[in-house]
Amino acid sequence: SDTLVINGKTVAINGEKNLLELIRKQGIELPTFCYHSELSVYGACRMCLVEEENMGIIATCSTAPQPGMNIKTHSPRVQRIRKMALELLLANHDRDCTTCSRNGNCKLQDLAQRFGIDEVRFGTREEVLPVDNSSPSIVRNPNKCILCGDCVRTCQEIQGIGVLDFANRGSKSIVAPAFNKDLIEVDCVACGQCVAVCPTGALTIKSDISRVWEAINDPAKTVVVQIAPAVRVAIGEEFGMEPGEIQMGQLVAALKRLGFDKVFDTSFAADLTVMEETAEFIERFKEGKKLPQFTSCCPAWVKYAEEYAQDFLDNLSSCKSPQQMFGSVAKRFYSQDLGIDPEDMVVVSIMPCTAKKFEAQRPEFITDGVPDVDVVITTQEVASMIKKSGLVFSELGIESLDMPLGFSTGAGVIFGVTGGVSEAVLRNAYEKITGDNLDDVEFKEVRGFDGIKEAEVELDGKTVRLAVVHGLSNVGDLIKAIKKGEKEYDLIEVMACPGGCIGGGGQPTPNNTEVREKRAQGMYNCDKLSALHKSQENPMVNDFYRRWFGEENSDVTHKHLHTSYEE
Ligand code: HC1
Ligand code: SF4
Questions:
Q1: Which of 21, 124, 175, 372 has the fewest CB atoms below 10 angstroms from its CB?
Q2: Under DSSP, is residue 453 helix (H, G, I), strand (E, B) or coil?
Q3: Which residues form the catalytic set?
Q4: Ligand 1: does its nearest atom lie under 6 Å from the Cβ of 92?
Q5: Residue ranges of domains in the chain, CATH in brackets
């Protein structure tokens, strides 16, 4: 077979798409800022350079392995150039590390340390650019940007949106929305995928931690917290555990120590969403109107539809997302059991998602000045709260969720992975339409990470045509195909982030395909470990119907659990 030489050792070429991959396979850690296996190759950061006998200095990310090459990855010349490239980046970078939210979790800081940079021999840039704080979800600090372009390519290639781009030339180069506008003024959907790939503090999650402390420290407030499905299989990563490990009991224990009055589960509300969304679907399906029905639980997708797919706004399910249903149920109904006014309850959400911050602020979800959800923090933010409080996560032990809003079935939990909403709805629709008991609850055809999954399910002699799509550029492709009449579906599940919520922009990093696959497995394990697997069997949800709501899609649920989206 074809071989080449790396640092004096002969190695085989096995179809690697570039030298970088081949070198990393040998256990040699070549640094990069701008290389991501899921994005196109940009080749700008100059960190992955090596010396080849005949070709001289080459960038490994953009060079294919060729037989006979003789490569040195850490020759004195390569080391010198790499160090210089780093110093140039540092010269142009706001080096106020101690107050940066990425302190201790920054690639630039990490490499500066690894390469022993003890001085920067180039003049430091003096101009200070304004920080863009306009988005409820994301902070953009151009003074921390190293122009790797990871965010630009993620927004363009993975999300198909492209609101970020390079502007200006030479030393004035920056990455910014068009015309250097603020993020809030452009059609950013707040998915946070750009934040997840940013190696420095140039794009960060807008922190709402101080608002949580304020609520906890206010004795007049009852502070209720909900934990989103995808958080439980990722929070452990912040404390050195493997992706996909279920850490719900530890998280509950931590939240109680932090001072929350009640710790609940968004999956309870996901079960409730399944009830409402299935009833809505069956009605549309029977009457053959406003099909396909799109899911509406992903706020980045809803924003995308409002900006880029207005023709389909009528096709969005009218169900509020589980996050918002939870807030509504807690404040309008559960508060009555506690004997308190909605104004005296604060609902905090822990979400894998940056767009949920934006969703909670939408006027649709504020009634008489009282929002369903008051504060949203991400998985990363809650981990930071736990660390700052001095709690040792791994030693907390396990505590149980509170009732009734802490009870969920496996169907409500798998919402956190692409395909999960569809599977949960199918488990309900099957029994509602056929009147039979569903024995095998696993709908494997909607699982997995293909960008667009299709399935046909026979229900009482009628075929339901499903599509499951994640990653907004795939959504764009699907919508084009539907508009052209090439594709026809009855039900479409959309999640903006690759992998669904498990890959959300608020999750721990790294947040790549390998990590997401493990988190997905964790979600299905949660389902397996649950006592119940069908939302319609959730006794707490059924109790709410009995006491307050009546039927699915009743006047009461329409008032409190549904909404509408207009152009
Ligand atoms: Fe999600 Fe959802 S699954 S949107 O991905 O429908 O964020 O986890 O909480 O609301 O339940 C996110 C996750 C989450 C909602 C639910
Ligand atoms: Fe693009 Fe999403 Fe980042 Fe907005 S949040 S700039 S849509 S990647």
A1: 124
A2: strand
A3: 277, 280, 297, 317, 356, 359, 364, 501
A4: no
A5: 3-74 (3.10.20.740), 89-205 (3.30.70.20), 210-561 (3.40.50.1780)
C-alpha span between 333 and 327 (Å, rounded)? 10
Q: Which ranges of the chain have pLDDT less than 70?
A: 566-567
Ligand nearest to the CA of 500: 1
Whether the ipTM is more than 0.85: the answer is yes
**Which residue, judged by its Cα, is nearest atom 15 of ligand 1?**
322
Asked whether 501 lines ligand 1 (CB < 6 A), one says yes
Report d(CA 351, CA 296) in Å as an integer. Answer: 16
Please give the span between the terminal C-alpha atoms of the chain, in angstroms, as a whole number: 60
- pTM of the entire predicted model: 0.95
Q: In residues, how long is the chain?
A: 567
Which residue's C-alpha comes closest to atom 2 of ligand 2? 191
- Specify the ligand 1 atom closest to the Cα of 352: 7
* Per-residue pLDDT tens over the stretch 127-184: 899 999 999 999 999 999 999 999 999 999 999 999 999 998 887 889 999 989 999 9
Q: Residue 307: count other Cβ atoms within 10 Å of its Cβ.
A: 13
The ligand with the least distance to the CA atom of 157 is 2
Question: CA–CA separation, 346 vs 329, rounded Å?
Answer: 13
Helix (H) or strand (E) holding 384: helix 379-388
Cis ω for the linkage preceding 371 (within 30 of 0): no
List the Cα angle 49/53/55 in 5-degree steps.
Answer: 65
Q: Which atom of ligand 1 is nearest to the CA of 321?
A: 10
Q: Are 67 and 169 in contact (CB under 8 A)?
A: no
Tell me: the pLDDT tens digits for 23-64?
999 999 999 999 998 899 988 888 999 999 999 999 999 999
Find out whether the beta carbon of 161 lies less than 6 Å from any atom of ligand 2: yes
* Ligand 2 contacts CB of residue 200 (under 6 A): no
Ligand in closest contact with the CA of 357: 1
- Residue 169 CA to ligand 2 center (angstroms) comes to 23
Does 228 sit in the ligand 1 pocket, CB within 6 Å? yes
